[in-house]
Design brief:
This protein is mainly β and 290 residues long. The protein has one domain: Beta-galactosidase, Chain A, domain 5. It has a nine-stranded antiparallel β-sheet, with no helix packed on it. Strand 6 and strand 7 form a beta hairpin. The longest helix is centred in the middle third of the chain and has 6 residues. The protein is globular and about 55 Å long.
């Protein structure tokens, strides 16, 4: 386990999946991350790469060849190597190898960089195309935050509040984990989602191309919570397991296949391209309210 710490926050990260495990506000001892209870959902903040969400039949095609990947890809289950660590920075890397090339035919280095400054945690996904041809990929985060944050409160005391009013539909997810074609009404010139566990009875809330780049998770009783910055991520997922005491705020550069997908990787919605030698960088941040 890797530890980052300053006078305000302490962060723990595992080498497996380069997964964020804990984020504690030291002045109060308050933990913000879900505890990974295996009877509910055994993860804390899995990294999604080289796909986000589900592929139709777990299959895609590239250059007339069939490949298979599980939901959210393989990075979350692989061991990352340490590149650098100081008191407030950590860099871990996953490199392509013979196993990854069997299911994802691109040569890459995938760095995940953690940085803490004051009361802010920054998490960066840095991908370098080490191959000789264009690389096609998706990447995203899946951090789970405990709700309620404080003892004595309940789930329904909390809201998600965007920094701009949104006219945004919710894209339904099929029983096979694919994105349906018809969008449901959701946010109508509004910026607030009142949390309740029934929101996730039909899987995640999937939002596309929001005007906002930040969302707060806060208690209506005391304004305690944090601000989540997802600048540069065109898709946002919001999810919780059935009746679970957490909410995932998921910034995505990529999305699950649609029900009418061609399964061609180059035609996939939200797919990112990276030329030979190129570098891709996206960062999400959590600012704990003092």
């Amino acid at each position: 386990m890797f530890i980052l710490e300053n006078e305000n926050i302490r962060v723990s990260v595992s080498a497996k999946g380069a997964e964020l495990q804990s984020m504690v506000y030291k002045k109060t001892g308050q933990e913000f991350m879900w505890d990974g209870n295996p009877s509910v959902w055994a993860k804390h903040s899995p990294v999604l790469f080289p796909v986000v969400g589900t592929l139709k039949n777990n299959t895609y095609y590239f250059n007339d060849k069939e490949y298979q990947l599980p939901r959210h890809g393989f990075a979350r289950d692989r061991q990352f190597e340490l590149c650098h660590q100081s008191n407030d920075t950590l860099s871990l890397v996953l490199k392509s190898d013979q196993e990854t090339l069997k299911v994802f035919p691109f040569t890459f280095e995938f760095f995940i960089d953690y940085t803490i400054i004051d009361c802010t945690l920054s998490v960066s996904y840095r991908i370098i195309n080490k191959g000789s041809s264009t690389m096609y990929f998706s990447v995203g985060g899946h951090p789970a935050f405990r709700v309620p944050i404080l003892e004595g409160e309940v789930y329904e005391d909390y809201v998600l509040e965007f920094n701009r009013n949104e006219q945004a539909g919710r894209w339904p997810i099929s029983p096979d984990g694919l994105i349906e074609l018809k969008v449901d009404n959701f946010l109508e010139e509004a910026n607030r989602i009142n949390l309740n566990k029934s929101l996730f009875n039909k899987d995640a809330i999937v939002l596309k191309n929001l005007k906002s780049n930040k969302v707060k998770l806060i208690s209506k009783k005391n304004n305690l919570g944090f601000e989540f910055d997802f600048t540069g991520f065109p898709f946002l997922g919001i999810w919780a397991a059935k009746d679970a005491d957490f909410v995932c705020i998921e910034p995505w550069c990529g999305i699950a296949d649609s029900v009418n997908t061609t399964q061609q990787l180059t035609e996939k919605e939200g797919i990112n391209t990276l030329e030979s030698g190129g570098e891709f960088l996206r960062t999400w941040k959590v600012l704990v309210h003092k």
